Amino acid sequence: MNRFAESDALHARVRALIGAFGGRRAPLEPFDAIAADLVRFQAATIPGYARLCAAHGVDPATIEFARQAPAVPTDAFRVTDVFAFDAAVAAATFRTSGTTLGTRGVHRLRNLSTYDAAALSFGRATLFYGLATPLPVLIVGPSPEEAPDSSLTHMCALFAGVLGVPELPRQTYFVRDGLLDAQALRARIAGLPSSMPAIVLATSFALVHLIDALAGDVLALPPGSRVMQTGGFKGKSRELDRGELERAVARAFALERSAIFCEYGMTELSSQFWEMPASGEVRVYVEPPWARVVPVDANTLAPVADGDAGIARIEDLANVDSAFAVVTQDRVRRRAGGFELLGRVPGALPRGCSIAIEEMLAAGRGNW
After folding, report:
1. Separation of alpha carbons 86 and 274, rounded Å
2. At how many degrees (to 10) do helices 47-55 and 31-45 cross?
3. 292 and 251 in one domain?
4. Cα–Cα separations (whole angstroms), residue 241 to 107, 208, 233
5. pLDDT in tens, 61-103
6. Which entry of 32, 43, 257, 281 is 20 to 30 Å from 171 by CA?
7. Predicted TM-score of the model (pTM)
8. 3-state secondary structure of 291
9. Residue 113 domain flag
10. Is residue 106 part of a domain?
């Protein structure tokens, strides 16, 4: 089987798992079976990943469980191309913001259908759960034409295009040329039918800009509406702590705080995680059946004891052509039903991540 045919077969298996979840059917095969074959494919097609496996004494041919796969640090996407194919065949190239280290990370996808299936299936089960679609989707962010390399923009456009009421682009996107058009958003919300809930998709810093622009005014959304909040502030706005921002957003849209859904994702992944609203102080993000989040030690990258905090190792079956397992600088703790997000690791790159990048690049710099 050639490289393209093997990739297509793996994509089909992952989409079958996603389809089983959406159809409330039992999966045809277990997570670990797909994961093991993904690791073998990636080690055979991505030289840097083969070097990482060798450095850890892992023979991809003998892997049986996802936990055996070495994880690629997300910062590796900034220094080398983590992709099983030539860049020319990529269907999409997503880039990180570049605000942390200056260099933008790059995640190439050869097949967008798996990414899209995963986003839509889990989005329906979380943010859109219990709502009749299509409904109005308002994006406090740029259009795909303005931000073609943003995975978040792609996901938002996907929700609007598939789950939203068909509308002109100017009625959907409310950040243009990097500027928030608060007046256009005000007019759009004023014209919403009162009998149909709406979905607002926004980043945290865009919501702060909106709150400041409103200066205490209220843009009352129809009953049953929801707001997606995602991402940090990245120096693009003043920062608000979580509780203060949620209260301000709820006031601005005349909603209960339970109508605010937080999303956790990153450029280097093909899957997203959603935080389900809860009344307690501890809020839990849930994973889809095709992804797992494991807290690991920042130095050894080994799983920590149950209940302990660690940096997030994320296993994502939808990352067929890049890195099935990645390790981040985000601190997490497992909770019943999911995981708690504790913020970024302060200071330098965790030692375990730094070593892993060196292992991937050793004897192969410039020749991935």
Report:
1. 32
2. 110
3. no
4. 30, 11, 11
5. 999 999 999 999 999 999 999 999 999 999 999 999 865 556 8
6. 257
7. 0.93
8. strand
9. no
10. no
